[in-house]
Amino acid sequence: MSVKVQKILNIAMILISFSTIPFMGLQNIKRFLPISILIGIIEGIHALIGKKRRWWIFYNKPNSYFFNEFPFNIGVFLIISLWYMKWSYGKFMKFLLLNAIGNALFAYPFAKFARKIKYFTLVRINHLQFFFYFFSKVFLFYGLQYLFEKYKKTN
């Protein structure tokens, strides 16, 4: 894949993701955005660790976080996490199931497709480990949202 095509894909991921926000409702955005941003920051740190350890590589240069992983974090992952919370907060098993399905789709068919189109490829981790890399944050995400809700009720 050329750098130009990757730039277009990156921009499209962000724009398409953010175009769904008006359907979410302002109350849901206010309620779930702080913890979603916090988890996004944690994911960004984990992505830097993964890049340093060569768990995956992106084919195109520049080999920077902002050109490669950032569009996923700020676009797809941030917005999907808001939607998952909107659809399932208060129903932990539903939240786990939604995240498991979404993470499995990303770790298996999407990662294989990304390799086929030469977007990125997994190097030092396999698809199952890639799945758990994302899924491990689910418990932290839900727990932090729970604590945030509890804190808001006491104040």
From TrEMBL:
Keyword Transmembrane (UniProt): yes
Bilayer-crossing regions: 7-26, 32-49, 70-86, 92-110, 130-148
Keywords, in A-Z order: Membrane, Transmembrane, Transmembrane helix
Name of this protein: Uncharacterized protein
Organism per entry: Heyndrickxia camelliae
